[in-house]
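# step 3/5: fold
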Amino acid sequence: MGTPPHIEIHDLGPAMEVIVISSPSERFVFYDMVIVLEEEGVEVLNASFSVLDDKVFYTVHSLVRLVFHA
């Protein structure tokens, strides 16, 4: 069994940056991360990934939508 992904969430005011670092052998699904963020009320502005040696870096830049209830 491999190492679990490393997850960082940066609060940038109305924006948010999520970074996930995992090994290429892990079956972390980037698409699922984007879907979960959108289901939680986050508007994904940009999503990308890059591979460097034995690590995969996933980055999502998003805008947090505010929901007001009457």
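# step 4/5: annotate
The mean pLDDT is 84.
# step 5/5: archive (pending)
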